[in-house]
Amino acid sequence: MGSFKGHLLPGTLFLAVGAWNVWAAVARFAFDPAGFRLLVWNPVGGGGGGALRHLELYVIAGGAFLDMCVEVLYSTHLHIFAPGGGVNPTHLNDLEHGGMLLMFFLFGALALLSEKTRYLPLTEGALCLVLATAFTAELLLFYFHSTTHQGLEGYYHYLLVLLIGLCVASTVLGALLPASFPADLASGVLMTLQGMWFYQMAFTLYGPMRPAGCHHDAGRNIECHGQAAGERAEQLANFQLFACVFLVFAYTLGCYAVAAAKYGHPDLRTKHSVEMEHRENSADRGGLVGI
């Protein structure tokens, strides 16, 4: 994963699945606000039994399995064990990445097994906790990594850990609040944001967007010349994260506007009118008492 392509593949998976979950959440809420229920995965084509119904789960399981094979088989060149016995320390980080990806593969496989058979009937809450476990494994990997990320690379991974932690929290919250639209939406938004940040890390740390005053050393680690260059690079990282948040925010608003126009339930407009009336009445009462 410590390469340009190694960040693009998981970034693409998180971005695609997260963006789909954002759209599906706002579409379901706009269609029936009163009957909204959280879904840890969203069928393609609605509730019908079409051939693409389980596409999201196939993308998760297949993408995670493919990336896991790249990390464990291709990156290690099958030199998993050292000549004297034990795990080859040179490829320990690849095996750690493979273990993390295994958890996401298991989530997709368990969800498919629960959906297609009678042997493992898992509720949405249980699947939320399985997904939260996968995110927790990812969080622990990047926090206790055998590859010590320092300097600018460490700062980008620190911001990534924050996003993963929020993914864990939102997924657990979804298990606790199965009728919460904000919890469902937050989970999709954070997955999308994590995917975009993987892309940003790929282009900044291993691609053409390397900050001025920073370069790769002989070990392919990025170093910045002096404290000023390092601080400037970290400030740039903060701005890049803000830009990612803004883009995801704009995408979410766009999805909500389209869903409200296409599927807007009468209760949605009624609820909005009641809330606006309540807000105006509260403002009037506040003005009368001098607040």
TrEMBL record:
What name does the UniProt record give this protein?
A: Transmembrane protein 45B
Q: Which family does it belong to?
A: Belongs to the TMEM45 family.
Q: Enumerate the InterPro entries for this protein.
A: DUF716 (IPR006904)
Q: Keyword set for this entry?
A: Membrane, Transmembrane, Transmembrane helix
| A matching Pfam family | DUF716
Q: Gene Ontology cellular component?
A: membrane
Q: How does it sit in the membrane?
A: Multi-pass membrane protein
Q: Where in the cell is it found?
A: Membrane
**Principal subcellular localisation of the protein:** membrane
Transmembrane as UniProt keyword: yes
Q: Identify the PANTHER family for this entry.
A: PLANT VIRAL-RESPONSE FAMILY PROTEIN
Q: Where are the transmembrane segments?
A: 97-114, 126-144, 156-177, 189-207, 239-261
